[in-house]
C-alpha cells in the first residue's frame, strides 16, 4: 500500500510541470462560454472494466449502458437533469385514466446504414412504428438473458414472456408513425422506462448480431474494437444533426493510476481521480476548475443471500450491520467522496427520509445481536466470505470491513473477482455475501426499492438478496400504482423503513461522482443518474484539442 501511495505521489509531482503546460497553454481562456461549438476531434474516455454486451435487451452494467446510449435511441430520453424529453418520438399523449399512452414517431429517423466498414442489413431505412413493436416483442420474449421484468406493467407483457399468449395485448400499432401502449394499472414512471437502455429501438434485420455488431439510430455508429478500445464514429445522418465530435474511443484501462497518468499526458479527455490524490487535485488552482462533482442516486451495498445459511438469521444480519463503521470508511477510504447511507433512498429522490436512523456503528449492539443470533463473540459461526469485484476502492473497503468484523469476533475471508464473473455468481445464487452497487436507471424510488427487493424480481431482475416478504410487496405495489405523489412518497418511506429493519443488506454509502475534464472539453453535463445517461452528441472540443 505504501509503495502505491509513493508511486502516485511521484507521478503527481512529475506531471505537475506537464499539467501546467498542457492546461495553461491550451485553454485558460475564460471567454470560452462565448465560443460557438465546432466540429471535429476525438474524445477518449477510459473504463476500468470492459463492457459486457451492447445488445440493449441484455444490458445490465453501466459501462455497456453508457456506450449503447451513443449508438441507440429510445422513444424518449433523459436530459442532463434527469427529466424526460422526446427522442425518437415527436410527442406523446396520456389518457385521463393514465392507462393508455400514444407516441407519435418522427418521420426523419434512419437506422445506421454502415457499421464496422460494411453495409447493415437494414440498409439505412426509415424508422416506423413496426420497429417499436418489434423491439418490445424481442425484449419481452422468453429469454433468461433479457432484462424484461420491468416492462410487465404493460398489459399482456408478462403473459407473453411466460408464453401464455402469442401477442402483447398492451402494444398496438395505430398507423405507420403512431404506437399505443396500455398498462395493467396506472404507473407514474412508465415513460421513464422507455428511456432506459433496454427499450432502445433496434432494426429486426440486424437483431441477430447486436451483441457483436450493434446497429441503432444513434448519433454515433459502431466501428468495432481496436485491441481493448471500443470505437464509435459520428453519424452524419443523425436526425438531430451530426454530433460535434468525429469519434469516441473507450479504452479499457484497469489500473486507476495508469488512467490518471494517461489523462495528465493528454491521452484521455476525462478521468476519475484516484482517492490518494483527490485532495491535491481539489486544491490545485489549474486542475480544480475542470473537476466536475455531483451526488448520484446510487447506492453501494453489501448483500446477503437470504436463502443461504447463516444469513437467513436476522439477528446476525443486524449484528454485521452495527459492526461496520461507515463514517470512517467514507472518511478514510473514500476521502469523503460519498454520503453515508442509512437506507436505500438517496437525498433528493422522492421518498427520501432524512429522519431514518439505520444502523450506526455500535460495537456493543453488534455483539449483543451476535449473541442473540447464537454466535457469542463469533463462536460457532460458519466461515463467511465477502466477494467483491476487483477495484482499488472495493478492495480497501473490504479490508476495512474485515477488520470491523474481527472486532466483534467474526472472521471474514475476502475474494476479489472480475466484474463479469462476480455478477454471474450473484445472479446464479452461488454467492452468499457480496458487494454490489446500483444507480437508478429511471429517476424514481421504484427504481431502487422495487428493482432490488420486490419478490417478483428474484432471479428475473436485480433482487440479488432473494428478499421475499408479502407484506413488503403489498406496500410497494400500492406505491407503484398510486397516482397522488405525496401519498406515493409516504408509501416508499414506509417500504424503505421496512426493508432497513429486515436488513437484507448493509447499506454502505451513496455515490459521489468526480470527473476531471481536459479544459478543452465543452458541453459536459451530468446529473444524479450518472455517466450512463451522458449524451456525447452534446460534447465538443475547442480547436486547440482537435488533434
Describe this protein's structure:
By secondary structure, the chain is of the alpha+beta class. The chain folds into two domains: 56-248 and 518-545, Periplasmic binding protein-like II (D-Maltodextrin-Binding Protein, domain 2, 3-Layer(aba) Sandwich), CATH 3.40.190.10; 296-512, Dipeptide-binding Protein, Domain 3 (Dipeptide-binding Protein, domain 3, Roll), CATH 3.10.105. The protein has helices spanning 2-27, 62-71, 129-140, 157-161, 190-193, 256-264, 275-283, 314-323, 326-333, 363-372, 392-406, 419-428, 446-453, 470-480, 485-502; strands spanning 42-44, 76-78, 84-86, 89-94, 100-105, 114-115, 118-119, 171-175, 178-182, 220-226, 229-234, 247-251, 270-272, 291-304, 338-340, 384-389, 412-417, 433-439, 505-517, 521-522, 540-541. Strands 13, 14, 15, 18 and 19 form a five-stranded antiparallel β-sheet that branches. The chain has a four-stranded mixed β-sheet with strand order 1-12-11-10, covered by helices on one side. Strand 2 and strand 3 form a beta hairpin. Helix 13 (446-453) packs antiparallel against helix 14. The two termini are 37 Å apart.
Instruction: Give the tally of β-strands.
Output: 21
Major sheet details? 5 strands, antiparallel
Give the CA-CA distance, first to last residue: 37 Å
Please give the radius of gyration in angstroms. Answer: 24 Å
Strand content is 15-25%
What's the overall geometry?
Answer: globular
Compact description:
With 547 residues, the protein is an alpha+beta fold. The chain has helices spanning 2-27, 62-71, 129-140, 157-161, 190-193, 256-264, 275-283, 314-323, 326-333, 363-372, 392-406, 419-428, 446-453, 470-480, 485-502; strands spanning 42-44, 76-78, 84-86, 89-94, 100-105, 114-115, 118-119, 171-175, 178-182, 220-226, 229-234, 247-251, 270-272, 291-304, 338-340, 384-389, 412-417, 433-439, 505-517, 521-522, 540-541. Strands 13, 14, 15, 18 and 19 form a five-stranded antiparallel sheet that branches. A four-stranded mixed sheet has the order 1-12-11-10, covered by helices on one side.
